[in-house]
Fold:
Amino acid sequence: MDIFFQQVINGLVIGSVYALVALGYTMVYGILGIINFAHGEVVMIGAMVALSIILFLFQFDIPIFLSIALVFIGAIIFCSLLAFCIEKIAYKPLRNAPRLAPLITAIGVSILLQNIAMLIWGRQYYSFPQIFNNDTYQIFGIANITTIQIIIILISLVTMFLLFYFINKTQYGMAMRATSEDKNAAKLMGIEINNVISITFIVGASLAAVAGILIAANYGIAHYSMGFMLGLKAFTAAVLGGIGNIVGAVIGGLLLGLIESLGAGYIEKLTFGFMGSNYQDVIAFLVLVLVLVIKPNGLVGEKSSTKV
Structure:
């Protein structure tokens, strides 16, 4: 039972990060109908930029809370500008192209960003500084949770709440929902489609930057290829929940994190430690295959219909 509660906590932590990244996938898909496979690299860029900002700020006597705020703001601004440029340069010219063209372009942008990051920061693994106090607390004597895990869950929840508020209560959010429903009708109603698409990419990149900082702070490591596997798992979470559905992305992220963590924990126990965490990736993609076979539209996704 102790293993169960501990793995639930671990699953909620990593699932919160998956959910943040999956939201970026699902928003872009909902608006443009394309899979932005470069999104995982935006997460990586967010972590690496945050690392550079931290190392720069360490040279000055700046209060820790101000330093943390500057790290998040700097990473979010940089990733937002990057996503804006990616959309304008790589995706905008292909809006009327066959769906395969944006997909191939997204893979190309992903590889390009990885190589640019490798040229800037190198191939080595960096130790991500401990920007949060990392004390350990016991929960009823059956499980442990660290300060960074609490912070990850809280920041993820606050970020998701702000996103839901933005989408449902603001003018730009309503424009995004209208564009997702019918681009031509939204354009006839005076909505500037290009601005909506740009805002969608910027919001998704902001979530990716936050996720990049949180995942690097949790594991204490940052490197140029860290976004590839995380991006694929977040895409799996988006498909699991129902890609194109905001609530589904959150549900899929949390559920995938729980499935991964519980599966790895019990496999490790049953094999006496010989197998375990190395099989998390296998579990994640097994879930993807099962969802595509059994329920292709995801847990809360709606069946698509063809207009004639």
